[in-house]
Design a protein that fits this description.
By secondary structure, the protein is mainly α. The protein has a domain at about 65-230: MetI-like fold (Orthogonal Bundle). It contains twelve helices and no strands. It has helices spanning about 5-30, 50-55, 65-95, 100-115, 115-130, 140-160, 165-175, 180-190, 190-205, 210-215, 220-230, 235-279.
């Protein structure tokens, strides 16, 4: 007799339904992207081929797919680096209470609860009013930081709240300067968290639509380009694009996990070598 209660199967069924709801649309798009040359946007499929993937690499009648991809990739890297650097600096700064720290903390968190489209509208209006050009690399960059920085800072706050300061004290006792302590002690210990912040920064930026809508200027990022294609493209080429971007997103996540794994192995090897040296 099965010892597991009935509630176990109910929860398992709910979880399976949740997975279908979560990944079903992505799987549907992936399946439809492999249609033959005469395929449409709905089932039933008309043949199976890679025609629409090859069509992506040809000149499109509408849109600038690869240009928008390059812009999103470059913007994602800029946002990622800025988010990591500012988050670490903010985490270090908030280790000690200072005048206005509580107000500053709530101001940081507030940007998460303000509707994204209002952030986009506000940043776009500010740039226009002061005479600056609305562009994906300036106003778009700033608007996306209002989304990624709070996540990065919250992660760093949690990391430094659990950080054992004995490591820093030991480094200073051995004659290390403040910068050497941060570089050789603090950063290696929090490296896995930094990789997580970098992943948050890049993926949130690469996927962001609402905060970029009114701040990208004349050149679309990839989410904006895909949105524009939904009103013009009537072939499965848009499904092929969705499949490729999904694969790219998973590849980026895989690269970050690989870096995290290699970092863990390196730390373990250094610990083993240090132990052998002491013996």
């Amino acid at each position: 007799m099965d010892p597991r209660p009935r509630s176990f199967y109910i929860l398992a069924a709910v979880f399976v339904l949740f997975l279908i709801f979560l990944y079903g649309p992505t799987l549907t798009i992936a399946i439809l992207s492999f249609q033959g040359p005469q395929g449409g946007l709905t089932f039933p499929m008309r043949g199976v081929s890679l025609h629409w993937f090859s069509d992506l690499f040809e000149e499109q009648a509408v849109g600038d797919i690869w240009g928008s991809f390059r812009r999103s990739f470059a913007l994602g890297l800029l946002v990622m680096v800025t988010t990591v650097v500012v988050s670490v600096m903010g985490g270090l700064a908030f280790r000690k209470r200072f005048a206005g720290s509580t107000v500053l903390f709530y101001l940081i968190v507030t940007s998460l609860v303000i509707p994204s489209i209002l952030i986009s509208l506000g940043v776009g209006l500010i740039f226009s009013q002061v005479g600056l050009k609305v562009h994906w690399a300036t106003s778009g960059f700033g608007a996306q930081l209002t989304w990624t920085l709070p996540f990065g800072l919250l992660i760093m706050f949690a990391v430094f709240n659990r950080f054992d300061r004995a490591y820093e004290e030991a480094a200073r006792d051995l004659g290390a300067s403040p910068w050497q302590t941060v570089r050789h002690v603090v950063l290696p210990i929090i490296a896995p968290s930094l990789i997580g912040v970098a992943l948050f920064g890049f993926t949130l930026s690469y996927d962001e639509f609402a905060r970029t809508l009114l701040t990208a200027g004349s050149y679309n990022t990839l989410p904006l380009e895909i949105f524009g294609m939904t009103t013009n493209v009537t072939t499965p080429v848009i499904f092929a694009l969705g499949t490729l971007t999904t694969v790219f997103s998973f590849a980026v996540i895989g690269v970050f996990f690989l870096v995290l794994w290699l970092s863990g192995r390196r730390r373990a090897r250094q610990g083993t070598d240090a132990g052998k040296g002491m013996v």
